[in-house]
């Protein structure tokens, strides 16, 4: 990095844990060259985008391809009008980049923004207006929207300004955890909704701090990664409205205002000029407990919307570069949110890469999930590309080399790339086909058994395991978008009436089943069936090849009351109700058990060394040993994983059997080698409690087992010499 040292200046080395903004020696040998607007100035640090504190002032750097002039605005904290306007001299511009060092500024005493002048031609997408106050695209902290749910006076648009951040956070040597991708159990959570309800019993509910206080719970559950829904600064007030007396917001946060800044309303304490420290403490504590952090990032669109939306950043800097424009100057809308970022333009590619590097280095995150990622594969006219430059660049970036890259491999324009997303063996995908096929099988649909086997064993029809291993398919049954797991078995239809769109929004084909009654029930038989189906879902997910992901609260049957598109619900519809943790303790404990079971048996997650008994790594046994075919009426499947255990001391053999039929079915098991027997380690038909003896509740003998209706049984091969004495079965083996 060229720091523009004078002849008598020597650069001092940076400390390991500090970014350039923390260097108090930066520019200490520099002196003013000009005096503008009452300030001593000189050219700044052109290669350092954004703003950085220096020894004698602050360096500001911003780029615009089409602008004819740039003016730096300085504001007193929280002031509406600037106290200084500094037009950046033309000789402070190199190429498209303006950079100015303003002497004497103290970062605690000001906020800043820009104004750009240039041509205005709507047909060509050029929207320069020298009166617009524009946010620095590289701003690391944003003012103007500190408190959740507050509008500016008079209902005006927000005026966003930036603060200079002094980064002094000490990471203590913590870096990426680098868990093997296939070992991940990912917990998708919304920062606000996770602890906002008072039942969470935390201080600072709905904030990074509130989430931090739940880390012991997450560690006990056994997950090893959290995927945080958008935490970049966003506008929850976009399309805010009142429906039937309830205030609705853009609650999920998929409308980014600033890509380098954490959402200030997610911080419990105000952190002027140290924004992000609370988030960093959260990330540090998660990592200390072995939990990776994956950020849900939104590079498909911004909060500026279409031609009717506000202009507070990219529109006023280079509208026709940052956004995909139609030939007549309107916005393409493959996002469904008004605009589309022009991700494969060189300028935007550079910006996205810089952004991800920022979060990788400054926040030490472990990966990213890309919302509507197929948009990142379109060219400037919206046409899908064979080898999208941005996707390739991120796959091979030197900073992002070990990061998890997860694509939501579709967009709102109809492009669906699950199984075909350009990957370079680096990108993984949310496997939407796993979700749909498994939902169908688990609720008992005909013709679904064969597809379920393919999904459980790693979706080999979509992903080449010889080149990509078992890391490409992120398996999930639920996520923020759709029913919760409990609601999946409580509702036949979506119930989004409280969203205010007459129940027209949200997915109409969720493959759900209410088990006989829509919504809440006091019928113990229906409730018992729902609980069993939830346990079946967790068992299937944890016994599937590929990284596993589930929605926060599914482990204790959190409900959204049938709302499968709760994007606007900042209330108990979307918040986790922690009271249900006690009510559904059995479900929670079973989910925890299955997560730990998956961790204890590597053969479930990947091929290990070959088993000495000669069993293949994966084999299918649908009712009979090695019967690998299904028909339209098949409801009974059996999958066996075999290999060596993690210590290479003995064979690790796991058998997963699922009966989605409404009557019990018999399963003949593969015969084991001499000295081994099958041990029942899970049976969803019985009520789970820690330490339960599943053998006692299961009808089986050495080679046969009876799987009750709509239930799952899991077995492991156990050595006769090390096994505990068998508990007599309640059943007569001869009757099986």
Q: What do the pLDDT scores average to?
A: 93
State the CATH architecture of the domain at 186-236 and 267-291 and 320-366 and 424-600.
Alpha-Beta Barrel
CATH topology of the domain at 186-236 and 267-291 and 320-366 and 424-600: the name is TIM Barrel
Work out the helix count: 15
Residue share in β-strands? 15-25%
**Content-based structural category:** alpha/beta
CATH class of the domain at 186-236 and 267-291 and 320-366 and 424-600: Alpha Beta
How are the strands of the largest sheet arranged?
14-15-20-21-22-23-24-25
Number of strands: 32
Radius of gyration, CA atoms, in whole angstroms: 28 Å
Q: Based on CA inertia axes, which overall geometry fits?
A: elongated
Uncertain ranges: 1-22, 725-736
The biggest beta sheet is recorded as: 8 strands, parallel, barrel
Share of residues in helices: 10-25%
Within CATH, the superfamily of the domain at 186-236 and 267-291 and 320-366 and 424-600 carries the name Glycosidases
Could you tell me how far the N terminus lies from the C terminus, measured between alpha carbons in angstroms? 74 Å
């Amino acid at each position: 990095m060229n720091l523009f040292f004078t002849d008598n200046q020597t650069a001092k080395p940076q400390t390991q844990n500090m970014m350039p903004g923390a260097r108090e020696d930066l520019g200490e040998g520099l002196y003013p060259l000009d005096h503008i607007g009452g300030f001593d100035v000189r050219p700044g640090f052109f290669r350092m985008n954004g703003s950085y504190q220096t020894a004698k002032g602050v360096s500001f750097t911003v780029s615009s391809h089409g602008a004819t002039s740039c003016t730096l605005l300085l504001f007193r904290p929280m002031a509406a009008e600037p106290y200084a306007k500094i037009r950046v001299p033309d000789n402070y511009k190199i190429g498209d980049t303006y950079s100015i060092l303003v002497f004497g500024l103290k970062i605690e005493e000001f906020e800043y923004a820009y104004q750009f002048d240039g041509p205005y031609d709507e047909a060509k997408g050029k929207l320069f207006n020298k009166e617009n106050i524009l946010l620095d695209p590289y701003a690391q902290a944003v003012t103007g929207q500190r408190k959740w749910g507050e509008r500016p006076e008079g209902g005006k648009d927000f005026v966003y300004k930036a603060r200079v951040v002094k980064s002094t956070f000490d990471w203590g040597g913590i870096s990426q955890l680098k868990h093997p991708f296939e070992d991940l159990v990912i917990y998708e959570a919304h920062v606000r909704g996770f602890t906002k309800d008072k039942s969470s019993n935390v201080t600072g509910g709905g904030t990074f701090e509130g989430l931090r206080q739940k880390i012991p719970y997450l560690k006990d559950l056994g997950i090893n990664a959290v995927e945080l829904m958008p935490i970049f600064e966003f506008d929850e007030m976009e399309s805010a409205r009142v429906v039937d007396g309830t205030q609705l917001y853009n609650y999920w946060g998929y409308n980014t205002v600033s890509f380098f800044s954490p959402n200030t309303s997610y911080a419990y304490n105000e952190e002027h000029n140290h924004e992000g420290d609370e988030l960093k403490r959260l990330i540090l504590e998660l990592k200390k407990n072995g939990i990776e952090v994956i950020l849900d990032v939104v590079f498909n669109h911004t909060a500026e919307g279409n031609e009717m939306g506000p202009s507070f950043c990219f529109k006023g800097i280079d509208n026709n570069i940052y956004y995909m424009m139609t030939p007549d100057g309107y916005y393409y809308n493959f996002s469904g949110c008004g605009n589309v970022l022009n991700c494969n333009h060189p300028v935007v590619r550079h910006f996205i890469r810089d952004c991800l590097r920022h979060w990788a280095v400054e926040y030490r995150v472990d990966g990213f999930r890309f919302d509507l990622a197929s948009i990142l594969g379109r060219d400037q006219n919206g046409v899908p590309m064979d080898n999208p430059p941005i996707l390739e660049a991120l796959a091979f970036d030197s900073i992002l080399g070990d990061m998890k890259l997860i694509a939501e491999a579709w967009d709102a324009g109809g492009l669906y790339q699950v199984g075909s997303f350009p990957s370079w063996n680096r990108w993984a995908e949310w496997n939407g086909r796993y979700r749909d096929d498994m939902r169908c099988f688990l609720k008992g649909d005909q013709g679904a058994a064969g597809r379920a086997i393919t999904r459980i064993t790693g979706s080999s029809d979509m992903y080449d395991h010889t080149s990509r291993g078992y890391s490409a398919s992120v398996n999930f049954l639920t996520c923020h978008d759709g029913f919760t797991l409990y609601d999946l078995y409580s509702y036949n239809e979506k119930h989004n009436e409280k969203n205010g769109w007459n129940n027209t929004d949200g997915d109409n084909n969720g493959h759900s089943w209410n088990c006989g009654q829509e919504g809440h029930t006091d019928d113990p038989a229906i409730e018992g069936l729902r609980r069993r189906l939830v346990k079946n879902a967790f068992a299937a997910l944890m016994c599937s090849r590929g990284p596993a992901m589930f929605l926060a609260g599914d482990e204790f049957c959190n409900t959204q009351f049938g709302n499968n598109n709760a994007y606007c619900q900042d209330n108990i519809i979307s918040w986790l109700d922690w009271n249900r943790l006690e009510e559904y303790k059995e479900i929670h404990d079973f989910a925890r058990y299955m997560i730990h079971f998956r961790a204890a048996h590597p053969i479930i997650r990947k091929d290990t060394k070959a088993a000495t008994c000669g069993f293949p790594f994966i084999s299918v046994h649908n009712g009979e040993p090695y019967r690998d075919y299904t028909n339209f009426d098949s409801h009974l499947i059996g999958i066996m994983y075999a290999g060596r255990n993690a210590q290479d001391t003995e064979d690790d053999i796991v058998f997963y059997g699922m009966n989605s039929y409404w009557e019990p079915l018999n399963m003949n098991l593969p015969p084991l080698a001499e000295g081994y027997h099958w041990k029942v380690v899970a049976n969803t038909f019985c009520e789970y409690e820690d330490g339960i003896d599943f053998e006692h509740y299961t009808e089986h003998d050495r080679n046969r087992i009876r799987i009750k209706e709509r239930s799952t049984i899991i077995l492991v091969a156990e050595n006769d010499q090390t096994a505990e004495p068998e508990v007599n079965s309640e059943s007569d083996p001869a009757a099986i």
